[in-house]
């Protein structure tokens, strides 16, 4: 039996960037790191001992350390089970260090899902393609923006392929069937196999990113779950609002790749009428922050938006970072919201898996 050590790194992400709701994502310089050791699978199967998980950093007080409850290890087990390995390998020990705050719109759950997919692939030595890894991630996190940017890195646009009726049914099963929370009783096999993802669910393209653009993340000190922030959105939109967003998104995806970036073009192109106006009820101060920080009041600013489902605000800028952050902080303070802020870079490399020699 041989043992192996590996390190998995997954970046934070910001989804939407204004008008690109559920479509575009940007990977950012905060990292979820898994340091893993385990014994390689052998045939016949080894005895199954429960994985040991330790955890430091963001979310350490709330994250479950039981491998059947923890999002990352549940996703890893899903990948293993779909590929003929019904349990974790022996002697599995995982230390997680997380820099991505939970429930702030910086893609913490997307990163945890991608870490799980990469972990399952690495433990099983399956060498799944990027496209197949994405299929597994999309069975868990069902919009592609965060997970695609976390997996491949950079500034990314993605769509979900229209699936056949059978494939749609396969991809729409309840999450509890994909990720059961309980292992089988000792000595017993799993009941039904989990539903394998249909092939080629997600498709993406990477846009250029002007290297001088940084992202100032202004992070309110409260959590807002993505589920709650999606519940406030309408089911239908007017043609006027859809055209408003489509016009801006078409311009934005190229404008953010041009050097030097044009603030006049980008500031307007980062406006949105599909999700931000509805989320203001959940984020005190949101409309005031978005309207008070502009390229004319803050030289260096290019555009400002809600990051993902919020409550973090993302300001894209080439300079004047501190002035932007302090103004947003002041406005939030007036609304009774404390914030932290950080200047982040856009990470083009995406996720990585590195094996120790
Ligand atoms: N590293 C992690 N390990 C285990 N669970 C995690 C991890 N990171 C996030 N989660 C789970 O995901 C939840 C947050 O997900 P949610 O989708 O609400 O917000 P987000 O992903 O941070 O924001 P957004 O999707 O808007 O970018 C956490 O409360 C936790 O349950
Ligand atoms: N596009 C998603 C991102 C959050 O995960 C939303 O805004 O709800």
From TrEMBL:
Keywords: Amino-acid biosynthesis, ATP-binding, Kinase, Nucleotide-binding, Threonine biosynthesis, Transferase. GO terms for biological process: threonine biosynthetic process. It catalyses: L-homoserine + ATP = O-phospho-L-homoserine + ADP + H(+). SUPFAM superfamilies: GHMP Kinase, C-terminal domain, Ribosomal protein S5 domain 2-like. InterPro entries: GHMP_kinase_C_dom, GHMP_kinase_C_sf, GHMP_kinase_N_dom, GHMP_knse_ATP-bd_CS, Homoserine_kinase, Ribosomal_Su5_D2-typ_SF, Ribsml_uS5_D2-typ_fold_subgr. PROSITE patterns: GHMP_KINASES_ATP. Pathway: Amino-acid biosynthesis; L-threonine biosynthesis; L-threonine from L-aspartate: step 4/5. Residues 70-154 form the GHMP kinase N-terminal domain. It is an enzyme of class 2 (transferase). This is Homoserine kinase.
């Amino acid at each position: 039996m041989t043992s192996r050590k590996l390190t998995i790194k997954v970046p934070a992400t910001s989804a939407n960037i204004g008008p690109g709701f559920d479509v575009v994502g940007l990977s950012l310089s905060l990292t979820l790191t898994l340091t893993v050791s385990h014994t390689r699978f052998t045939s016949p199967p080894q005895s199954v001992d429960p994985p040991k998980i330790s955890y430091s950093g963001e979310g350490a007080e709330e994250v479950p350390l039981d491998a059947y409850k923890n999002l990352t290890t549940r996703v890893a087990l899903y990948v293993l089970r779909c590929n003929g390995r019904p349990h974790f390998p022996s002697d599995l020990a995982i230390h997680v260090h997380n820099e991505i705050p939970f429930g702030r719109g910086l893609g913490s759950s997307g990163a945890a899902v991608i870490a799980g997919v990469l972990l399952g692939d690495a433990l099983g030595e399956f060498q799944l393609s990027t496209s197949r890894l994405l299929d597994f991630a999309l069975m868990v996190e069902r919009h592609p923006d965060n997970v695609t940017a976390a997996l491949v890195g950079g500034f990314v646009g993605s769509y979900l392929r229209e699936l056949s009726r059978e494939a749609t049914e396969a991809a729409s099963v309840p999450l509890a069937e994909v990720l059961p929370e309980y292992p089988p009783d000792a000595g017993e096999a799993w009941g039904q196999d989990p539903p394998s993802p249909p092939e080629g669910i997600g498709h993406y393209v990477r846009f250029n990113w002007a290297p001088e653009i940084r992202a100032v993340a202004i992070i309110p000190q409260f959590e807002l779950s993505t589920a709650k922030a999606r519940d406030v959105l309408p089911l239908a939109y007017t043609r006027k609002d859809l055209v408003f967003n489509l016009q801006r998104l078409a311009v934005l995806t190229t404008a953010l790749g041009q050097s030097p970036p044009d603030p006049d073009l980008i500031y307007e192109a980062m406006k949105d009428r599909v999700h931000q106006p509805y989320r203001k009820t959940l984020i005190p101060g949101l409309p005031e922050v978005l309207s008070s920080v502009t390229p004319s009041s803050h030289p260096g600013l290019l555009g400002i938006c809600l990051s993902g489902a919020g409550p973090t605000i993302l300001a894209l800028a080439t300079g004047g970072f501190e002035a932007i952050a302090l103004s947003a902080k002041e406005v939030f303070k007036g609304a009774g919201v404390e914030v932290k802020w950080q200047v982040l870079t856009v990470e083009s490399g995406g996720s990585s898996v590195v094996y120790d020699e």
